[in-house]
Design a protein that fits this description.
- Strand 4 and strand 5 (55-58) form a beta hairpin.
- The chain is mainly beta and 119 residues long.
- It has 1 helix and 9 strands.
- Helices cover 8% and strands 39% of the residues.
- The chain has one helix at 105-113; strands at residues 18-20, 26-33, 41-43, 48-52, 55-58, 65-69, 73-75, 81-92, 116-118.
- Strands 1, 2, 4, 5, 6, 8 and 9 form a 7-stranded mixed sheet that branches.
- The longest helix has 9 residues, at 105-113.
Amino acid sequence: MTRNLNENIGEMKPDDLIYDATHQLDARVVEVEIASGGKGGTLERGQVLDLKDGTYAVHAEGGAANVIVAESTEYSGEDDAVSVSAYISGSFRHSALVSDVELVPGDIEKLREVGIIVK
């Protein structure tokens, strides 16, 4: 049986989330509380998450930015929380971060304090 070894199996689309390798890239799984209102959704790769009182949530104005979602993760309308892999350190491109509110210098500084460098 002959097989074509240069066959395209999938398509790779590079994203610009990771800026460079000057700072060590590290991740872990975090549980994010979801206010879905009965609708499902997706936490997108690059989504900024806040940490408040030991609970992670989608970044909101005045929130304490803490981690960045590493892989897009879907959730259903029945979910109150979802586990996602999230970057806890590394260098990231500002233009590739996802947030419903504008990231202000205070948010960038909060991320820097935990080892996430935004360039």
